[in-house]
Amino acid sequence: MVEDQDPALVRACQAGDTRAFETLVDRYLKTILNVVQRMVKNHDDAEDITQTVFIKVYENLQGIDLRQKFFSWLYRIAVNEALNFIRRQKRTTRLEGDFAANGSTPEEAFVETEFNDQIQDSLMKLDPENRGLIVLKHLQNCSYQEMAYIMDIPEKTVKSRLYSARQLLKGILVQSGIFENE
Amino acid sequence: MNDERIIHQIHREIDGEITEAEKEKLHRRLLKDQKAQRLYRELIQLNGMLCNARRIEPSLNLRKRIMNSVDAKRRAIPRRAFPLPSRIFKRFIRPEPKMAFAFAFGVSVGVLLLAMVLPKNGWHVRNVSGTIGLTEQTGFKTLEQTSCDLTEVRSTWTVKQSGNILTVEVQSKPSAETRMVLEFEETRMRFTGFQPMSQGKITLENRGNRIQTIQDGDAAYRLLFRRESADASTFRINVFQAGQEKYAHAFFLKQTPEK
Questions:
Q1: Which CATH class is domain A94-182?
Q2: Phi and psi torsions of B217, nearest 5°
Q3: Confidence (pLDDT) at A153
Q4: Counting C-beta atoms within 10 Å of the first and last residue's C-beta, which end of chain A has fewer, N or C?
């Protein structure tokens, strides 16, 4: 598995090997961008946050605990950066997702018929922490233990929040007509 | 299993956290319980929907943006020759008179020593007007050429090699004072010489694995290096004007064939 090589790459980075860091960027760039994009929706914002994430990773590589999986640590930084961004956004302006929730007209709905956009819009209606859990579980296939570390909450809380986030998302998808309730 | 327990087990199965024995028990229960069966199907469908969501591709320049920022960070962090433990600094946060005197004396001696040592091992700054070092020029083969064609600066870099000697020929026409930094791995390359190819004033600074040139007019010159290792390696050039990076490029040197 590629992640088995991560500790060696991290050690090389700590010794000042920039190419090792480039390898880590190549390995995780797309994954981190996808996690962040699902959290914040806007692609440009997602790319800016992803850039910040990798800079923070570089700056903090000396302090990384190699007993912890590198990607869990990376996801933790990415999720925190995305959550901080959302909090800052909330203080200044309403989220794009909120517009869709409150004032979508049939015309707007018609324009946004693409399946992925609808999934993304539904995700945006969840609160950011629940959204983070859904993204980590269903898009990145993280374990409860990894999610607990990434989100900095107990494993028990991960389970209960994930269950209720799923129920909420299902409800939103049913309301949007994407998901058929039996 | 009560209702709450079965819902819990369904979620755990979706999450791949259930044991084989629990899974078997759950599926036996699902056969008998219509409500639980419906929840199970819905969650499987939801999971499939989310897993199949389209993956987003990063834009072409995102990787470059990240590496440029990291590169800038790396340069901004000064390398301490003598890393001092923080406890030594802590002792001076609230200095007593004797300690303050000792500290000031220590700093003065340190500065004096550094002033003596730096000209030997630090940046060598000089305005270059003639050839320095090894300038062998026969049998060179062009490996790579790159150009930047900006309003602020138009430059061409040509990398040539003959045996283990590498030259980087630079032809540059900047609109204002321009700084070019060429950085390489010290264990793979060694800077050996400089040769001007045109009239013009250039400041050359050499610090081990970083060569910096500063010019404010047109200039053409050649930098010479010796490849210390046959292994593949890279070196980078970065061009700055008024502290802002204008151009960056990485050269990849293939492994040289074994003799």
A1: mainly alpha
A2: -145, 180
A3: 93
A4: N
Residue B24 to residues B17, B20, B29, B156, B194, Cα–Cα distance (Å): 13, 6, 9, 69, 76
The yes-or-no verdict on residue B212 having pLDDT over 80 is yes
Distances (CA, A) of B154 to A137, B157, B244: 50, 10, 16
Q: Hey, what CATH topology would domain A1-93 get?
A: Rna Polymerase Sigma Factor; Chain: A (1.10.1740)
Q: Tell me how far CA of residue B134 lies from CA of A1, A159, B63, B110, B190, in angstroms.
A: 48, 68, 37, 35, 12
Q: Do the Cβ atoms of A138 and B50 come within 8 Å?
A: yes
Nearest CB partner across the interface for A51, out of B41, B55, B65? B65
Min CA distance, B42 vs chain A (Å)?
8
- Dist CA B157 CA B221 (whole Å): 10
Nearest alpha-carbon partner for A79 in A120, A59, A55, A50 = A50
| Statement: B127-253 belongs to CATH 2.60.40.680 | yes
Nearest to B62 among A50, A141, A179 (CB): A50
Could you report the per-residue pLDDT of A86-132, keeping only the tens digit for each?
888 766 544 343 333 334 444 443 433 456 778 888 899 999 999 99
Distances (CA, A) of B91 to B95, B99, B218: 7, 9, 53
A51 touches B at CB < 8 Å: yes
pLDDT tens sequence across B140-177: 888 888 898 888 889 999 998 888 888 899 999 898 88
Record: contact A37-B11, CB cut-off 8 A: no
**Per-residue tokens: A125:** 């209606």
Q: Which residues of B touch A21 (CB under 8 A)?
A: 70
Indicate the range of A144-158, B115-129, B179-193, B234-248 predicted with least confidence: B115-129
The DSSP line for B180-191 is EEEEE-TTTEEE
Residue ranges, CATH 1.10.1740.10, chain A: 1-93
User: How close is the nearest chain A Cα to the Cα of B13, in Å?
Assistant: 12
Q: Provide, as residue numbers in chain B, all residues whose Cβ is less than 8 Å from the Cβ of A134.
A: 50
pLDDT of residue B253: 85
The mean pLDDT of A63-90, rounded to a whole number, is: 87
- The residue ranges of every structural domain in chain B are 3-51, 62-121, 127-253
The pLDDT of residue B132 is 59
pLDDT of the residue at A88: 84
DSSP single-letter state for residue B60:
T
Pick from B50, B66, B74: CB nearest A119? B50
